């Protein structure tokens, strides 16, 4: 029930307890994991959010509201997208609440990026890497538009699809990138991500790999989104293998972010399918399962504005044998008074909603699980851009 206007108190609803075997195999260690696109202040302009009360768009009010949200979520791991004012505001204030953090800023003239906040008492950072999707440009032959990363169709096909595809959001696309027919220009979108390996503060010293990313928004550039996602999965594979070898462990993997893709579309299907459509079947591919999709179904929406309302944000799991999902963060429905009229508002400081879950570590399962990626060679299929 929503009362007076103000930050909504998050509720994590329990799932089925999984039976006596899960309880017996658990070592009792639980952690809460949340992903949240907080809406960078640099993109908060009345022209983008004419439906929002002007008072809740101002930095002083928004920053305190976002900070209150992050505090109330009480997560052990927070994957945050569209994070700006990191050094000036969020880093120091989150440290006061017991969090350390890592951050990568978008390239070019962009001022926001991706951050991972984690509680000292829950985990220790072992190693981290930045992901810069502009690195895809280095893999491409700009003369003929071929590259070794990703999956695309011709520009004509993509343009035709874009005519019938909802414009998800253009608030974070303020630059003139140049000629989209040039494949090198087409791939350069200034998007980033983070990879991090954490040692959980449990006697078993189980390792958790966390990936946080923000994929490009434009429906007309589905080929670029797919290339970014394929690059992300290849980097996760390599990172997990490196951590496994270096620390002689079998990490669990959680992948979170704003994927700017709706359930069932080509990007979502690529991530969650064992052998995605339109992919060379000889190529290796890691299959992720959606936290919400495999437990009660994807939310009706995670992004809510009058122009677009739909699910764009996800938490994906690589292997659920070591982690038992205990609860899920509740999201409002379309008739909830706190979202009517669109976001942001005085209840929610971002146009996105946080998603998350609680996990329990199954130590027995982890000790017996085989690392399916250790011996995997990450191969790439051919990509044609700008045909």
What can you see in these coordinates?
- The chain is an alpha+beta fold.
- It is built from 8 helices and 18 strands.
- A 7-stranded mixed β-sheet has the order 1-16-17-2-3-5-4.
- A hairpin with a 7-residue loop joins strand 4 and strand 5 (113-119).
- The chain starts with 11 loop residues before the first strand and ends with a strand.
- Residues 147-168, 279-283 and 368-387 have low confidence and may be disordered.
Summary keywords:
8 helices, alpha+beta, seven-stranded mixed beta sheet, 26% strand, 387 residues, disordered C terminus, 22% helix
Walk me through the topology.
Blueprint: E1 12-14, H1 20-25, E2 26-37, H2 59-73, E3 77-83, H3 86-96, E4 99-105, E5 113-119, E6 123-132, E7 140-141, E8 146-147, H4 155-162, H5 183-187, E9 192-200, E10 207-214, H6 222-247, E11 252-258, H7 266-272, E12 289-290, E13 303-304, E14 309-310, E15 313-317, E16 323-329, E17 355-362, H8 363-368, E18 383-384
Parallel strand pairs: 2-3, 10-11
Antiparallel strand pairs: 1-16, 2-17, 3-5, 4-5, 6-9, 7-8, 8-18, 9-10, 11-15, 12-15, 13-14, 16-17
